[in-house]
Amino acid sequence: MSVHAKRTAFQGASRPPREPLPGAGDLVSATEVAYPAPHHYHEGVGAPELESALAERPAAASLAVKVRLPFCRHACRFCASQCVPSHDSRQAEPYLSRLDREMVLARRRLSGLPPVSRLHWGGGTPAFLALDQMSDLFDRLDARLGLSAARDRDFSIELDPREADMLTLRHLQALGFNRLSLGVQELDSRVQQAINRIQPRALTEALVDEADRLGFRELTLSLMLGLPFQTPQGLADTLEQVLGMAPARIRLHRYDHRPERHLAQRAIHRDWLPDAATRRRLLTEARAHLDAAGYVHIGLGLFARRDDRLAQARASGNLGHGPLGFTQGPAGDLLGLGMGAHSRIGELWVRNADTLAGYEGALDASRLPTACGIRLTPDQQHHQATLEALLCSRSIDPATLSTGADLEALGTEGLVDLSGGRMALTAEGHWQLPRILETLARPPGP
How far apart are the C-alpha atoms of 22 and 413, rounded to whole Å? Predict the structure, then answer.
């Protein structure tokens, strides 16, 4: 392919983003608006609570499954994920055995389960696994939980193009995967060198072509804004090349420089990073290109072509959102498998141990590796539902909010429209959702 190229105040709302970008809006991440947020989880909720929740689920209720494969061969300097560095796929064998044990323990608690029609593999990078390991894991998931073979199944996987090739895609397609997400980040060579991710355009383009030939239903390409040495012109060039590949979806992430928390980021000097004015221009540049190309902003930095299922779901009012992101229709329950994986079963939200030793130790003792969690109260459930409404329908009934919420201030800032008896997000408001949540969580000033 040639290229031209949450009836109460918002209790415990997530903290607003660092260094917001006024005027052009900020790039909101799912983590920043997540509810419950990580700091709401506590050790008083663990494996027994998850076991009870699984046992109490209706036998006919669907269950999505996410498998976390934390291994990664490359040390990208921008990385904020909890990964396990390794160069040998054989080192994943003990982890895969523990995953199988986790599936068995979870399945024992379920009174019934229809075929799993929504499956996601993330990481790390799942392509770290050898092809036979992928097959074995897929077969174990099918044997333990039962995977759907229906045409409308939604089996997705995240791939690092540097770890995948044509054989990888053909193997994944044969297994039953029909959606791909490829990380691009940036195509500017100077930026790639600074973040230690050398990824030529031709490498990504070849995989995009092969995915299209194999009939993968949807392809997402991910870009990152605010990287070292990134410029508006360099990003414009990258966007032109990415748009030329015509992916169904494009996701924008924002680089958040926190070297005190993420060891890999310590190799990035702060003075390499774009200043606030440049970051505003980066986001403006990206939005302009995507708007001009006809992509619809679904939310949280995700754009989709107008013929994409999520764009159509948004237009018809059928958009949902959950731990797996935006969905067509209600998100439903999620069972997360693997180190640091999150699960949502009804009002129960839990997270697995986020270290390899903690995860493996629990399973070796024949316990589910749940480390912490929270069971939402009715008020908290209402809050969570309000957040989902803001994300999906972009409007709510102000009467459901606390009378202390200073909605007029949000309207003055151009972030919400208060006409027609509704509080609707403006286009700018959708980019500054943490700012809105912060205002809704506190009473107005004197």
Answer: 10
Q: Are 50 and 349 in contact (CB under 8 A)?
A: no
- Token pair recorded at residue 209: 């072509």
* Kind and range of the H or E run holding 313: helix 309-316
pLDDT tens-digit readout, 341-359: 999 999 999 999 999 999 9
Mean pLDDT, to the nearest integer, of 200-223? 96
**Distances from the Cα of 420 to the Cα of 118, 337, 389, 396, 440, angstroms:** 37, 44, 17, 11, 19
Give the C-alpha separation, 65 to 333, whole Å: 9
Residue 30: Cβ within 10 Å count? 16
Beta strands in 342-391 (DSSP E): 342-345, 348-352, 370-375
Per residue in 263-310, pLDDT tens? 889 999 999 999 989 999 999 999 999 999 999 999 999 999 999 999
Spatial contact of 329 and 344, defined as CB atoms under 8 Å apart? no
- C-alpha angle with apex 379: 376 to 385, nearest 5 degrees? 80
Yes or no: say if 222 and 253 are a contact pair by the CB < 8 Å rule: yes
CA distance 319 to 391: 9
Mean pLDDT throughout 124-146? 96
